[in-house]
Specification:
single chain, alpha+beta, five-stranded mixed beta sheet, 52% helix, globular
Length: 516
């Protein structure tokens, strides 16, 4: 009577609680519940009728999914136990870096009800109990069709809160524990041939990051290709650029690129790559227009010899080697100044915007140059003092180890180039707090544990992100919240830039996750 094995699976899955995962646990559970309801696991005529009245249609299982400006082909296989059971997204390798996990977590409308039931069952018991009976609760949630924006966790959490007034922390969802067929499967192809497949998109992106970028670069090589420009000699740059090759639609992200003594224009496969390159390209173009001013600043930078020696000996960033620079201290200082004066907080993608920023802000350059030089001198002096004091401690001393790790992530070769000027100004306070903590030998276990809850999570996430895109942690608000939290824990008398606590850090972490 019922031909759809997937429907049968869903029927029984909706009846069984999470603690039933084997024949033994099933028998134990059945004996208990069937005393009150002997036919709990029986199919009724109404169940069959309801199934026949609700046939799967193209809207429930579409043959493609729109992800931003991309159209991703979908295939289905309803075969429990098979590697590709469920729905599979077919992603050409050149598009691999252009997609993210969240849109795929929604699966398709025809599978969303079953997924939501499984998601609620994945919650801890003290939260899950508010939503029983789960199938009926999910049906009520789906009375308002989702817009498929944001994450499925946020949407379901909001719907449940409106229905029951119970809030669900985002970290309560155990998405990894869901049945495999309720996770999107990904098939990565190149010229129609299978490269790889799996249900972990981030792992596939990390594995094929270089191939994906190279494949896209070859396709986009002849699009918007400018080189050797010493002034804005090209059209306005759109944020996205669509083009067609061999009958296929493509989308990329145009950016200026730094060519050393000139700039060019290229298209990149991700917004993040384009943003990093565009910033560097803009700074080079401003420097080309301000040769006299830049030459004067280089010659007159105060106390640069002593600072440059220390700066050049700084270690690389311990997690992101690509943040290291071969540039001199003066080069990185000039980059900082140009970015702060002409680029920071501005959108410059047109010749008009470029020339206006040059005209409006040129007078500020010398003022910022003098101020920035003093700040850099203070930072490097404080850094050297702390490093000298740390030599008094055994290398395995837990406090010395912690402060060394903090310094390595804060002051590394290239940090001046990568740190926004507004944040560079407050680094001396963070260093003073670290020095104060060292003097007081404050290694309170509770404080350290509270801090590490966020430090470890954040830097692990940064490590993952770098496998897909260029990442500059200094551009993350959460990265600086970590330093403010350190001040609040170990040097309160220095005061924080804004109220900070464990509760606020939890909120900031959720905001950080939502922004990715």
């Amino acid at each position: 009577l019922v031909e759809d094995e997937q429907w049968l699976y869903g029927f029984y899955d909706s009846k069984l609680p999470p603690e039933v995962f084997s024949g033994v646990t099933l028998d134990t559970w059945r004996k208990k519940v069937e005393r009150d309801n002997p036919k709990l696991l029986f199919l009724t005529k109404e169940d069959l009728t309801r199934e026949q009245e609700s046939p799967v249609n193209d809207w429930d299982t579409p043959d493609s999914k729109k992800i931003g400006n991309l159209t991703i082909a979908l295939q289905y296989r309803f075969e429990p136990g098979h590697d590709e059971d469920g729905v599979t997204a077919i992603i050409p390798v050149h598009q691999l870096n252009q997609v993210s996990q969240a849109p795929f977590d929604w699966l398709v409308l025809g599978m969303l009800e079953e997924k939501c039931i499984a998601m609620i069952k994945s919650l801890p018991k003290q939260i899950r109990k508010h939503f029983v009976p789960v199938p009926e609760t999910v049906k009520r949630c789906l009375e308002i069709e989702p817009d498929f924006k944001g994450t499925v966790q946020e949407w379901l959490g909001n719907r449940l809160r409106k229905l029951t007034d119970e809030a669900i922390p985002l970290n309560a969802w155990a998405m990894d524990s869901l049945p495999e067929h309720l996770k999107m499967n990904f098939r990565i192809v190149e010229d129609g041939k299978l490269l790889d497949y799996g249900r972990d998109l981030k792992k596939l992106q990390a594995k094929y990051n270089i191939e994906a970028g190279d494949s896209f670069d070859q396709i986009a090589a002849d699009e918007l290709n400018y080189t050797g420009c010493i002034q804005w000699a090209f059209d306005d740059l759109p944020e996205t650029y669509s083009f067609m090759q061999k009958g296929q639609d493509f989308i990329g992200y145009p950016a200026l690129v730094d060519e050393g003594d000139a700039v060019g224009v290229r298209i990149f496969d991700t917004e993040q790559k384009a943003a990093v390159q565009h910033s560097a390209g803009l700074m080079r173009l401003f420097a080309l227009q301000l040769r006299k001013e830049c030459s004067y600043i280089n010659k007159n930078m105060p106390q640069s010899a002593a600072i440059e020696l220390t700066y050049n000996r700084l270690p690389k960033h311990p997690i992101i080697e690509t943040l290291a620079t071969t540039n001199t201290y003066k080069d990185d200082m000039l980059t900082l100044m140009l970015h702060s004066v002409f680029i920071d907080g501005k959108t410059i993608r047109t010749q008009t915007a470029f020339e206006q920023s040059l005209r409006d802000n040129k007078a500020q350059l010398m003022t910022v140059a003098n101020e920035a030089s003093k700040i850099a001198l203070e930072i490097m002096t404080l850094y050297s003092t702390i490093k000298t004091d740390l030599q008094r401690f055994n290398t395995n001393d837990p406090l010395a180890k912690d402060i060394n790790e903090q310094l390595d992530l804060l002051i590394y070769k290239g940090f001046i180039r990568n740190t926004p000027y507004t944040q560079l100004k407050v680094i001396p306070r963070y260093l003073k707090a670290a020095h104060y903590r060292l003097d007081k030998y404050d290694n309170n276990a509770q404080k350290v544990q509270e801090l590490n809850r966020y430090v470890i999570r954040y830097w692990k996430d940064i490590e993952k992100r770098t496998k897909k895109d260029p990442v500059i942690p200094e551009r993350d608000a959460f990265r600086w919240a970590l330093e403010e939290f350190r001040v609040s824990l170990f040097a309160q008398q220095l005061k924080t830039a804004y109220p900070v606590s464990a509760k606020r850090m939890d909120k900031l972490w959720d905001e950080y996750g939502a922004s990715l």
